[in-house]
Amino acid sequence: MPFALYLLGLAVFAQGTSEFMLSGLVSDIARDLDVSIPSAGHLTSAFAVGMVVGAPLMALLSRRFSRRRALLAFLVTFLLVHVVGALTTSFAVLLVTRVVGALANAGFLAVALVTATSMVEPDAKGRATSALLGGVTVACVAGVPAGAVLGEVWGWRSAFWAVALLSVPAVLAIARAVPASAAGTPDVAGPSALSELRALRSPRLLSTLLLGALVNGATFCTFTYLAPLVTEVTGLGPGWVPVVLALFGIGSFVGVTVGGRVADVRPVPLLALGSLALLGGWVLLAVTAASPVAVLLLVLVQGTLSFGVGSTLISQALYAATAAPTLAGGFATAAFNVGGALGPWCGGLAISAGLGYRSPLWTSALLVATALTIGATALGLSRRVRPTATAAHARADSPT
User: Fold this and answer.
1) How confident is the model over 121-134, as pLDDT tens digits?
2) Which helix (H) or strand (E) is 283 found in, with range?
3) How far apart, in whole angstroms, are the C-alpha atoms of residue 108 and residue 365?
């Protein structure tokens, strides 16, 4: 893999840390800025909405610039809004910085996905995707817990300063290491925006994006409510929560690493078997949630399976959208963030309905089961269409 890929991963690490770190800082922010905890929680919702809306819009905007220039613009904007966020005493200003930061994050990730896959061989998109998304998984393992520690010791603003400082070397590295131009940018002729939008109507691409949203929704449905599950159902003390989150993060890193190597050569078996195992794992975890040993083991396994299947779906979306080299990354990013917002919402509904803290696990299982059903149906339809198309060609070519 080109070294520049890992530099892009460094920036993704900083952005992933920013996206998830508020879970441990909400109480401090609410107290410092004199707002309620639910109001402070809107900072997370604002970031999620910014990611979903921003990914396709920012990808479309980035067509006007070379990829290196677009990456730098998004990353510098992301850095600056964290400086403003660390300095402000206004909750309204902080809320705006989260929205702008999410737009910049979404734009960066959309362009980075396409840039990463353009820097490798055409059949290595899976490995390129896993190298890039490794930054998100490392953020789950190290960045988010470190942000929580910084917030505890020096206050929530220190976590914002840390994200800004992490972005500085990434800016310098991208300016030096990422190629100035690439196919599909103003430097090299590429398809028009209209033709790219038409290409995004591909049934294969749309079904892949839908599957990605469902699988990612299942992942974050449970991940969001792991803390109350561990303390209220499993019976472990609060000190075990960072351990469980770290195990999930370690599993996610293993998942994107292994998935990236397999996705380029055996994507369908990986998605089919991995999704079946993922479904079984969510059910087993729901049944055995009162057992500390089972929870510690299955959280690691589910983190591996979730990100292995999820990263493979991202790479398959990029394979399916070769005719939309600029916008493919944006729509893949949006789809997965739809899942990231949908899953916690569904899990919260289940808990609010009085179904208990195991209910997000069952909800995750239901989301994966839905993905499996849609995936099997789409695969069956595609296999039925191919022989029909082949027979029609044969009749057209035969003499009459």
Assistant:
1) 766 667 777 777 77
2) helix 267-287
3) 31
Question: Which pTM does this prediction carry?
Answer: 0.75
162 token code pair: 């840390």
Contact partners, residue 384, CB within 8 Å, separation at least 6? none
Question: What does the CA dihedral 10, 15, 19, 21 come to, rounded to 10 degrees?
Answer: 60
CA dist 310 and 110 (Å) reads: 16
In contact, 16 and 23? CB cutoff 8 Å: no
Q: How confident is the model at residue 294 (pLDDT cuts 50, 70, 90)?
A: very high
Query: Which pLDDT band holds residue 291 (cuts at 50, 70, 90)?
Result: very high
Q: Which tokens sit at 318?
A: 């990029």
When computed from its CA atoms, the radius of gyration of the chain, rounded to whole angstroms, is 21
CB 115 within 8 Å of CB 71: yes
Q: How far apart are CA 333 and CA 107, in angstroms?
A: 9
Three-state SS for the chain is CCHHHHHHHHHHHHHHHHHHHHHHCHHHHHHHHCCCHHHHHHHHHHHHHHHHHHHHHHHHHHCCCCHHHHHHHHHHHHHHHHHHHHHCCCHHHHHHHHHHHHHHHHHHHHHHHHHHHHCCCCCCHHHHHHHHHHHHHHHHHHHHHHHHHHHHHHCHHHHHHHHHHHHHHHHHHHHHHCCCCCCCCCCCCCCCHHHHHHHCCCHHHHHHHHHHHHHHHHHHHHHHCHHHHHHHHHCCCHHHHHHHHHHHHHHHHHHHHHHHHHHCCCHHHHHHHHHHHHHHHHHHHHHCCCCHHHHHHHHHHHHHHHHHHHHHHHHHHHHHCCCCCCCHHHHHHHHHHHHHHHHHHHHHHHHHCCCCCCHHHHHHHHHHHHHHHHHHHHHHHHHHHHHHHHHHHHHHHCCC
pLDDT of residue 187: 42
The overall longest dimension of the chain from CA atoms, in Å, is 83
How far is it, in rounded angstroms, from Cα 216 to Cα 335? 9
